[in-house]
Amino acid sequence: MLTPEERAEIEAEFSNYPDKKATCIDAMKIVQKHRGWVSDEALHDVGELLDMSATELDGVASFYNLIFRQPVGRHVIYVCDSVSCWIMGYERIRQLLSEHLSVELGETTPDQRFTFLPIVCLGACDHAPAMMIDDDTHLDLEPGKIEPILDRYK
Ligand code: FES
């Protein structure tokens, strides 16, 4: 069941769009902000509010890779694997992150501190290789920068 706060925040989005179905990404992001991810139950509840099926919402969520359909860690690392970052050293950065975190892409650390995910171009190709942690973008990555950056996220 959506909380009164979640419902109020989603309904506040309705006035920004001609059709309340168009708020679906915002609605799922609101749920995710409160719960950390969007469960099947939450998807069903959002669907009821927006007159959409859970299947329709799941289809949207699967195209929008910032909606989590399973639990994630306290911080989410998105390492860019698109062409500029690939050319500029993505593989070394990915490898170092994997070593520091002891997880592979798609996994969450056992202490639930980090989830490690790939992402398409972050729009910072002139500062490749790049990654995001939560809402922070980290640019011009070099091996020596990885550990100090990770240390900022507890
Ligand atoms: S390719 Fe990585 S930021 Fe564009």
Explain what this protein looks like in three dimensions.
This protein has about 150 residues and is of the alpha+beta class. The protein has 7 helices and 4 strands. A hairpin with a 2-residue loop joins strand 3 and strand 4. The chain is elongated, with a radius of gyration of 17 Å. The chain has a 4-stranded mixed β-sheet, with helices on one face. The two termini are about 30 Å apart. FE2/S2 (inorganic) cluster binds near residues 80, 121 and 128.
Describe the secondary structure blueprint for this structure.
Elements: H1 4-13, H2 24-35, H3 40-50, H4 54-63, E1 75-80, H5 83-87, H6 90-101, E2 114-119, E3 131-133, E4 136-138, H7 143-151
Parallel strand pairs: 1-2
Antiparallel strand pairs: 1-3, 3-4
Helix pairs in contact: 1-2, 2-3, 3-4
Bound molecules: FE2/S2 (inorganic) cluster.
Residues 80, 82-85, 121-122, 124-125, 128, 130 line the site of FE2/S2 (inorganic) cluster.
Give a brief outline of the structure.
With 154 residues, the chain is of the alpha+beta class. Helices cover 45% and strands 12% of the residues.
| Helix count, DSSP H or I runs of 4 or more residues | 7
Cα separation of the termini:
31 Å
* Helix percent band: 40-55%
Please give the radius of gyration in angstroms.
Answer: 17 Å
- What small molecules are bound in this structure? FE2/S2 (inorganic) cluster
The low-confidence parts are none
Strand % is 5-15%
Major beta sheet, specifics?
A: 4 strands, mixed
Describe the global form. Answer: elongated
Class by alpha and beta content: alpha+beta
Q: Strand tally, please?
A: 4
What is the arithmetic mean of pLDDT?
A: 96
Sequence of secondary-structure elements: HHHHEHHEEEH
The neighbouring-strand order within the major sheet is 2-1-3-4
